[in-house]
Amino acid sequence: MVYEVVIVHEGYINEEDDYTLRKNCTCTLIKGKVNVIVNTMTPWDKSQILSVLKDHKLETSDIKYVISTQPTSGFAGNNFMFENSYHIVGHAYTQKNTYLFEPFSYGNPLCIDGDDLKVIPTSGCTLKDVSVLVKTADGIVAITGALFLNEEDLKNDYKSIRFCNGSYFPQNQIHSRRMIVKIANYIIPGYGKMFEVDENVKKSFLDRIIL
Predict the structure, then answer these.
(1) DSSP labels for 59-122?
(2) Contact of 79 with 66, CB cutoff 8 Å
(3) Does an H or E element contain 47, and which?
(4) What number of CA atoms fall less than 13 Å from residue 69's CA on the CB side?
(5) Which of 26, 42, 126, 171 has an alpha carbon within 20 to 30 A of 67's alpha carbon?
(6) What tens digit of pLDDT does each residue of 176-201 get?
(7) Strand, helix or coil for residue 10
(8) Residue 160's pLDDT band (boundaries 50, 70, 90)?
(9) Local structure of 207: helix, strand or coil
(10) d(Cα 34, Cα 32) in Å, to the nearest integer?
(11) What would the mean pLDDT of 96-119 be, rounded to a whole number?
């Protein structure tokens, strides 16, 4: 069964002044054999998620996995709505009060539906970041969270990682970003629209010398 990717909310990040940053993450619904929601934004965004689920004839009980690509509040604000789902928040893998074995700390993926839908470790912004890889009719979509801020982020690793993104582990993040660019046809970043990663983009990104 082919998976479909639906953008629930297109994220953004804007620096308003020296002391204020306004941002909200991109939220994504994966529809198919296993229904998944990735990065549930802030608690103030509950109605938007419910509205999109309704548009796609889904209830919260139809979502089997809730995934937050990093263990921070802005990516998990509405996880509470999905009471019967399995939850992956960074490297934590739980169902209700049961903590399940997670393979991420050992550098391994969690295969939700074989190679068609899986979660992989992509440390960098934090040590416990993960990304979701899903096969669609248009190719492999990587939902990366803050591993990439947005499409413009492809142009300058140094600026985006060391300054804009506040990466705790910049060398890890550079490695994770290159891994994703190699395998993905499309990337859904942390704070922007989905963008294509064609062969020209791959070559430009992977050939660049990173200082």
Answers:
(1) -GGG--EEEESSSSGGGSTTGGG-TTSEEEETTEEEETTEEPP-SGGGT--EEEETBTEEEEE-
(2) yes
(3) helix 46-55
(4) 29
(5) 171
(6) 999 999 999 999 999 999 999 999 99
(7) coil
(8) low
(9) helix
(10) 5
(11) 97
